Amino acid sequence: MNLFYQLEQNHIISNEGEFQMNLRHLWNDLSNVLVNRLEPRIIEKHDRCGQSYYEVYDPTSQKFSSLNSEKEVRAWLDQRY
53, 47 in Cβ contact below 8 A? Predict the structure, then answer.
């Protein structure tokens, strides 16, 4: 077996491994997107005075709400589940 043939075979194996790794990353990213679409979204924001409030989104009902406290967010989550 000559050196060129060995290098060529190593490159092919390396490319196959790289392809499988890229395919696995693509699958993981796609899975995360699909799963995360069903998860509620909660974003903490601040008004002009610096007070915190929360914008929440329920993807199953496609409704947004604005809540004033973490306690309200917890109640919203409990009601949702």
Answer: yes
Question: 29 is written with which tokens?
Answer: 């990213």
Tens-digit pLDDT profile for residues 56-74: 999 888 899 999 999 999 9
| DSSP annotation string for 22-60 | HHHHHHHHHHHHHHHTTS-EEEEEE-TTS-EEEEEEETT
- Whole-structure pTM over 0.85, yes or no? no
Whole-angstrom distance, CA of residue 80 vs CA of residue 26: 31
Sorted by sequence, the CB contacts under 8 Å of residue 59 that are 6+ apart come out as 37, 38, 39, 40, 41
Dihedrals phi, psi of 68, to nearest 5 degrees = -95, -15
